[in-house]
Amino acid sequence: MQAELTKLLDLQSKDMTLLEADVRLKAILDEVARLDGEVASVKRDVQVAQKRLEDGVKRRADLESRIEGYRSIQDKRRQRLEAVKGAREAQAVMTEVEMARAILIKEEGEWVKVAEGVHDLERGLKAAEERVTGVEERQAAERQQLAEEQARLEAERDAARGARDDSAVQLDRVLKARYDRLRSARSVAVVVPLKGEACGACYTSVPRNRRTQIRAGILLDNCEACGVILYAEETLG
């Protein structure tokens, strides 16, 4: 039993090393995700600016088309005005020309406002794109450092996983299955020494006969309260 206990503690040690590597690797990945989020945020600003610019350009093009149509109609009305003979008909055509001229002036004024707005949107898009570039440049050194740290931790984790697997195959299959069930539900030690008369994890009192067997090295028993595997440190002598 003492040999199996030694193997079990070795496996737990390997698992804790692996867990530590996982925690440190997650911290790196979380930091990378934070940087990605920062870039994504400014890129969304670019997308919004692009959409606004596209809408502005379309509005300007629509106005240009309408204005061109009004001008064409005006030319035709002027030609009609030159061809009419009667004063009443000439007056009617002149009224149409003046009304259309007022509409044309209004549309041209709207076009000027929209065109100025498009220039502002172009500047806004450029500024948003420059912010993306600025964020990416500012992050470059940090990302390089994180990438190097991630690669180092991944290699460390792979080594820890290999060591854990090598240790696991040395352990009795039944004891390993018992240990793995506990490990699947906990991120802390599941093989815990007695502390006086109690479990070293939850400090629940352990019956005397079981303590005696555990200290004699003839039993690896579970705590009735929290389920950890108990052992006596003195058995490791």
Estimate percent helicity: over 70%
Helix and strand sequence? HHHEEHEE
Low-confidence stretches: none
Tell me how many strands there are.
Answer: 4
Tell me the domain tally.
2
CATH class of the largest domain: Mainly Alpha
Shape: rod-shaped
> Mind telling me which CATH architecture of the largest domain this is?
Orthogonal Bundle
Mean of residue pLDDT? 90
Our count of helices gives 4
Q: Biggest sheet, strands in spatial order?
A: 2-1-4-3
Textual characterization of the structure:
The mean pLDDT is 90. A hairpin with a 6-residue loop joins strand 3 (221-222) and strand 4. Helix 1 (2-83) packs antiparallel against helix 2. The relative contact order is 0.14. The protein has a 4-stranded mixed β-sheet. The protein has 2 domains: 18-167, Helix Hairpins; 188-236, no CATH class. Helix content is 77%, strand content 5%. It has 237 residues and is mainly alpha-helical. The radius of gyration is 40 Å and the shape is rod-shaped. The protein has 4 helices and 4 strands, in the order H-H-H-E-E-H-E-E.
Secondary structure layout:
Elements: H1 2-83, H2 87-168, H3 173-183, E1 191-195, E2 198-199, H4 208-215, E3 221-222, E4 229-231
Parallel strand pairs: 1-4
Antiparallel strand pairs: 1-2, 3-4
Helix pairs in contact: 1-2
Question: What attributes does this structure have?
Answer:
237 residues, mainly alpha, Helix Hairpins, 4-stranded mixed beta sheet, 5% strand
